[in-house]
Amino acid sequence: MGGHLSRRYLWDAEAEPDPLHMPSFPAQLGMPARQPRVMVASASQLSDARVPLEQRDFCGHHLVRLLRCQRDNFPVPWGCHALRHAWDSCQHEDYVMTHT
Questions:
Q1: Consecutive sets of 10 residues in the chain, 100 residues long: mean pLDDT of each?
Q2: For 93, phi and psi rounded to 5 degrees?
Q3: pTM of the model
Q4: How far is CA 23 from the centre of its chain?
């Protein structure tokens, strides 16, 4: 702890940025612009599919297809593996996008 402070003030000042003179370049330099997200499934489609309110998000269209597949293939739990994977991947990408 404090190793960076001793390096900054005792000898190699060029190796670390000066906290009093922060860089002046734009914060979003080099990062692609995010496109605004849109809902694929409408509110009426989600309510018709009986999707719970807490799961009506940007991945709702994947969940509608998954619930329909689970209903149609009821005794066979492994019939909807690809749809489950698509919904889980969308949920993970949504979490990463909103929490980072």
A1: 63 68 75 80 93 93 95 89 96 88
A2: -65, -35
A3: 0.66
A4: 29
